Write a sequence for this structure.
């Protein structure tokens, strides 16, 4: 009986929505309309995705995409003005702040994977990155096999340390794996010779190298520990109406070619605050993804 | 709040392939206890020595004790661990520095020794206060009995002083356990570190930290109970610490 009633209610709701159209707002969209504000979560040092410039203002590739989403939301809700609030997040706070409604979108470098999709939703992928390692050129490490018996560092709690652990077993490297608190510290371990290599998303390694004291001393490996994994802008789970707007906005941005311009601005040109150039042209996989936007957490879908 | 609670997460396999998420947290707990135990041994021994030095008649010993306590007490533990782990090896001769850096389990030893020294300054102050709280006559009586200064401390002053400071020492021990959490900054995956890893892998933040909180509470409850027994066991009837 109860089932019939809920089916009936669902049907009634469907009709109500189709008849009343966009007037019946729910979830995040309703909240944004009611408050006239949308809140973006940003990271303070996720270069070049989301970080603070010299005016302490969050900028970056993911921030630019988020502002495009904000424009689309504004248009969808037919608002004259939409206030954008900015809220800093860390990897430890992004989930609680998303769950309790403090932030509506997280604009950073968060890997979209199946396990995390149990807790949050992601819009179309904005970057693909594989696990590689950075090393001092003087140490002459050519391939993953050269890491045999060496001390290797990665950041605790990342998918990268998991892949490193798996490779260590699979290839019987016998490497001594040490976890670091964050990327900066892990890189410091390579800088001070505590570890010979740091395994991380290649793009983050490129930005750490570009920002180091002597960028010429370091190189990022050709060998990868994983297929390129997707980064996505994070939003609340089970909010289909809002996700639809966000997905449409990112899809339009990516397929129009405008995304390529934004990409070039952050990855192949000088970026604030220090004028670093990451020199990372767009990969074939990402180009493909931009042509056919996808929010899949599965790396195999991005070939 | 739009949060997907999942208490079953603890029994799901962790992505490191080392069993379940619960196993991950428990391995962190073991590391926390090991670190805390070693740190506490260091803190008690060094702290006692320095505490005694601060009450000795010798000016030099006093001065050393004072400098030691102020050095270790006034610098945040986080900064100290960073200094020991990252800065110290760079200041040593190259060979020694490299040896130190390539030591197996370097984060564990650094954390245990670093937390131990930090806590030893606090133990020293407690012990100094304990000795200072004894009636002046006790020291004189010991001398009158023909005991040397060392014997006076060994047989008269220290047994009383330690009984008096046992309750505050309990709280220092609890602090030692909690302070090991700082060791995640040098890559030691103790309980807090594993809880953080768990939340990064699964995004189940609240479950991870709830479990860590409960485990810390459990350990603290065990320590408090054990110390109550110890206090009762060493109590001398008729003294301020006895009934």
């Amino acid at each position: 009986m109860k089932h019939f009633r809920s089916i009936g209610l669902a049907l009634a709701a469907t009709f109500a929505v189709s008849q009343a159209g966009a007037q019946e707002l729910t979830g995040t969209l309703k909240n944004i309309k009611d408050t006239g504000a949308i809140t973006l979560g940003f990271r303070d040092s996720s270069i070049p995705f989301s970080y603070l410039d010299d005016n302490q203002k969050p900028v970056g590739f993911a921030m630019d995409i988020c502002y495009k989403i904000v424009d689309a939301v504004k248009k969808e809700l037919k608002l004259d003005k939409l206030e954008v609030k900015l809220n800093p997040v860390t990897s430890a706070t992004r989930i609680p702040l998303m769950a309790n409604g403090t932030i509506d979108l997280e604009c950073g470098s968060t890997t979209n994977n199946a396990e995390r999709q149990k807790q949050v939703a992601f819009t179309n992928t904005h970057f693909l990155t594989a696990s590689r390692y950075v090393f001092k050129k003087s140490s002459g490490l050519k391939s993953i096999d050269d890491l045999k018996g060496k001390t290797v560092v990665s950041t605790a709690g990342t998918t990268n340390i998991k892949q490193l652990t798996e490779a260590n077993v699979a290839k019987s490297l016998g490497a001594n794996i040490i976890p670091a608190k964050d990327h900066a510290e892990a890189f410091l371990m390579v800088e001070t010779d505590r570890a010979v290599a740091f395994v991380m998303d290649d793009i983050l390694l490129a930005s750490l190298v570009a920002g180091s004291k002597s960028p010429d001393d370091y190189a990022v490996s050709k060998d990868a520990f994983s297929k390129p994994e997707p980064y996505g802008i994070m939003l609340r789970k089970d909010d289909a109406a809002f996700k639809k707007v966000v997905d449409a906005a990112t899809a339009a941005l990516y397929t129009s070619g405008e995304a390529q311009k934004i990409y070039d601005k952050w990855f192949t040109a000088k970026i604030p605050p220090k004028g670093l150039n990451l020199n990372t042209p767009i990969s074939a996989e990402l180009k493909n993804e931009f042509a056919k936007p996808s929010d899949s957490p599965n790396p195999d879908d991005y070939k | 709040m739009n949060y997907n609670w999942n208490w079953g997460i603890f029994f799901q396999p962790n992505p490191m392939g080392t069993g379940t998420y619960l196993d991950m947290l428990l391995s962190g707990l073991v590391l926390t206890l090991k670190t805390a135990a070693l740190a506490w041994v260091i803190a008690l021994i060094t702290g006692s020595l320095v505490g005694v030095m601060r009450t000795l008649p010798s000016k030099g010993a006093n001065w050393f004790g004072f400098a030691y306590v102020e050095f270790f007490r006034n610098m945040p533990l986080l900064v100290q661990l960073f200094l020991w782990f990252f800065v110290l090896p760079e200041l040593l001769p190259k060979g020694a520095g490299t040896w130190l850096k390539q030591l197996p389990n370097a984060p564990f030893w650094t954390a245990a020794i670093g937390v131990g020294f930090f806590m030893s300054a606090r133990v020293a102050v407690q012990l100094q206060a304990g000795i200072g709280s004894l009636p002046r006559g006790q020291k004189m009586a010991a001398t009158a009995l023909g005991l040397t200064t060392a014997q006076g401390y060994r047989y008269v002053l220290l047994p009383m002083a330690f009984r008096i400071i046992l309750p505050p020492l309990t709280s220092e021990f609890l602090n030692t356990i909690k302070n090991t959490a700082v060791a995640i900054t040098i890559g030691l995956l103790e309980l807090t570190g594993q809880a953080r890893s768990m939340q990064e892998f699964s995004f189940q933040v609240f479950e991870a930290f709830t479990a860590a909180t409960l485990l810390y509470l459990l350990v603290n409850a065990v320590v408090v109970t054990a110390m109550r027994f110890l206090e009762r066991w060493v109590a001398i009837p008729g003294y301020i610490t006895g009934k």
